[in-house]
Amino acid sequence: MIGASAGGMDALKVIFSVLEKNFSLPIVVVQHISPQSENYLVTYLHSRTALTVKEAVDKEKAVAGTVYVCPPNYHLLMEEDKTLSLGAFEKVNFSRPSIDVLFETGALAFKKEAIGVLLTGASRDGTYGMGMIHSLGGMTVVQDPDTAYVASMPQSAIQSTPIDYVLPLNDIGPFLNTLSRAQVRK
Amino acid sequence: MTNYHKDSVHENIDIEIKLFLEAIFLKYGYDYRNYSKAHVKRRVLHRLNLSNVESISEMQYKVLHDQSFLREVMKDFSINVTEMFRDPDFYVALRQEVVPVLKTYPFIKIWHAGCSTGEEVFSMAILLEEEGLLNRSQIYATDYNQQVLDVAKAATYPLASISEYEENYHKEGGKGNLSDYYTADEEAIRFHDYLRKRVVFSDHNLVLDHVFAEVHMVICRNVLIYFNRELQNRVIKLFYDSIITGGVLALGNKETLDYTNYSDAFEVLNKKQKIYLKKYFYNY
Questions:
Q1: Surface of B (19-48) touching A: CB under 8 A
Q2: pLDDT tens track for B250-263
Q3: Which residues of chain B lie closer than 8 angstroms to A93, CB-CB?
Q4: How far apart, in whole angstroms, are the C-alpha atoms of residue B198 and residue B42?
Q5: ipTM of the complex as predicted
Q6: Per-residue model confidence as pLDDT tens digits over A5-48
Q7: Helix, coil or strand: residue A93
Q8: pLDDT value for B78
């Protein structure tokens, strides 16, 4: 699960351009985006990665090697059976979609298997969700604020939750490839 | 640390939530057992955090003995985020593609399921008026939540929200001014009687109740996403049984029949806006 806000488009591009084609985990992305926008991020990432990129659809099952991007003006929730649910409920942290909603439902659904990656942004969204992932035994990864377009979102998470890996932007993609290969060996 | 993070809360969370929902159903008849698990779990944990109790089992005790706590929980589960002419492109599609279908009927019955506080119902009534159809239309607007129905029946909304609604109205191709349809005082607007008398607001629970009328169109937007697949199938069947052959089903623009058992029972009228027509020949 990846959450990003201001500066996220570039950061996601850097990460997704190095992910290997046979990536063995599903990836779900919440990027703060204008509610009126068409989901340009899908088109944008599609041409910049070897993985399949699509907009998340309600009750669709998330499969390995595919990137699901949350539609604008909806929240994205993870179910235990790996299906995706959408929600049109009130904003959380002034945001819809909210990174916290994805992270907390993902933490509850996957516990130790949940992996949260929090990237650049000016909000505090994602901090609470990272706390949930950590306390339910999942893995927390945060972009090194020094390499972030806006540092406050990753910084906020680092200040309030133990983070397993704080990584410079350029190292996040290769790190995720390592996790993907470890998953295959399991 | 908040309750949320405690191991004791998570140890038996699935059992305790199941019992909690069962208790609400047995005592009050509201059935949340087939709502999306992720949605329910998140809401229950947030309520736990805001309540002065230690565990979900204690919440179960509280909901059985305290009606005001039930109302809190119902508010958590039922989503009432709405606005007039929500997603203007949807209403553009209604004018261009659905109105020609509705025009072929001598009398038009529309069921707006999960109408919440009614903003989208009055949007539809205004659209029908502008397309010359309102005087032969009847809208049944239903919700299971009495509190939101009371708001809808009053047809009265805060003045502060109107400028945003006015913007949506013009984006969707509105032919006049929104102010043509209401009277306003300093705080609120109230829709005219000729709109209201075309709408019957009533209590209907999609989870438990049955077909109550044969209709030419069902509108149910951003309701099914809170249900699990099993319940989605039940509700789509209910709509299928209510809509006349060739009639219209309109869902929220991120909802789809693709993952239900009824994708073959409807044909797509507008893919992007999730507007479907009930097929002529289909056996399920």
A1: 36-39, 41-42, 45
A2: 999 899 998 899 99
A3: none
A4: 38
A5: 0.91
A6: 999 999 999 999 999 999 999 999 999 998 877 788 999 999 99
A7: coil
A8: 86
Contact criterion met (CB below 8 Å) for B218 and B161: no
Write down the pLDDT at residue B1: 40
CB contact under 8 A, A58 and B81: no
d(CA B87, CA B109): 23
| Measured CA angle at B8 (ends B7, B9), to 5 deg | 90
CA distance B134 to B139: 9
Beta carbons of B97 and B51 less than 8 angstroms apart:
no
Burial of B100 (0-12, 13-18, 19+ CB in 10 A): exposed
d(CA B243, CA B115): 17
Distance of alpha carbon A160 from alpha carbon A126, whole angstroms? 11
Strand partners, B218: B111, B249
| Residue A26's CATH number | 3.40.50.180
Q: Is residue A184 part of a domain?
A: no
- Total structural domains within chain A: 1
Percent of chain A with pLDDT over 90: 94
A18 part of a folded domain: yes
Whether residue A185 lies inside any domain: the answer is no
Nearest neighbour of B36 by CB, restricted to A79, A88, A108? A79
- For chain A, say whether B119 makes contact (Cβ under 8 Å): no
End-to-end CA distance of chain B: 52
User: What does the mean pLDDT of chain B come to?
Assistant: 93
In which element (H, E) is residue B216 found? strand B215-220
Give the residue extent of every domain in chain B.
3-77, 88-278
Beta bridge partners of residue B217, listed in sequence order:
B110, B248
To the question of pTM greater than 0.80 for the whole model, the response is yes
Q: What is the CATH number of domain B88-278?
A: 3.40.50.150
Angstrom distance (rounded) from CA B77 to CA B180: 35
Confidence of residue B5 (pLDDT cuts 50, 70, 90): low
Question: Which chain A positions have a beta carbon within 8 Å of B4's beta carbon?
Answer: 132
Q: A32 an active-site residue? A: yes
CA dihedral for A149, A150, A151, A153, sign (positive or negative): negative
Which amino acid does the sequence have at B54?
A: E
| In a domain? residue A186 | no
